[in-house]
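Handout, section 4.2: multi-component inputs.
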Amino acid sequence: MNAPMNYLDGNAAAGELSRIFAADLTSAQGQCANCGVKKPFAEAHLYMQCPGIVARCAVCGHVLLRLVGVAQRAFLDLRGMTYLTLDTTK
Amino acid sequence: MTWRTATVVELHDETASARTLVLAINDWPGHVAGQHVDVRLTAADGYSAVRSYSIASAPSSDRRIEISVERLPNGEVSPYLTQQVMVGDELEVRGPIGRWFVWRPEQAMPIQLVAGGSGIVPLMAMIRSHASADSTAPFRLLYSVREPGATFYRDELRALSSRGDSLVVTYAYTRVTPKDWPRPAGRIDRELIASSMWPSNLRPSTYVCGPTSFVENATKFLIDTGHDRDRIRTERFGATGERK
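Output:
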């Protein structure tokens, strides 16, 4: 994917995701549903110049996560990841 | 994670366009070097803007944190934080955030830090944490900065790096160098990485923070010079979109 360099890392979504998840997602490992790579969510490419947040796979560009807030509701789409593994000790 | 009230207790100018804010937060749970906070400003009409800022200070028990904010042209939040905010003002803060781009004093391996511009901020928290914990992990910092006057924490970096060899700092000036500087102004390149950084066979843990293009270039050069991608952690920043 040759998108312009206007992305951040998964790190930058951590504050918004903390509204939904008790565990820290940045250190979670996720598998891309498209290319199969397993990487920390912190390494995903994050696009925030949109109504919500879009995280793409750093390897293939596939959309991993979309999070949009409308009024008092959050819409979360995680189907771009086959699974997430989280550290539950913290 | 909830929003907490932070009181501005000190302000220091870092450069002509950047300022450090010391924030006192009564119920601050403590942080790890490298973490960030979200800062929310809300206008009288209810409009709010959220931005992420890395914590610059080492973890401590005094329930204070420091953030260093660079003023962005046309920014919505940074002009307020760098020009208007006063001691005694209150801000809303959410954090600490992130458990990936962090350094803990238990990490004894050689550490390579690579900063582009204000990307120095979370790396400075690591350097301060390293100093306050008396860590013996050898640290190297490669700090790319536009010109001498744009350098954050210059005196402190000089003092910390003159204490022995536990911190070695190399500057790369991209536009203007100090007088008689040996390397002409220019971006970091393979040669500078090869000459100033830990060799890849030492398997350093590397942290790169800066604007997205800087991080991409630095990471590419690191991989080209034999560094293991899995030992490089990155944090990119940029002008982010509006969030509520």
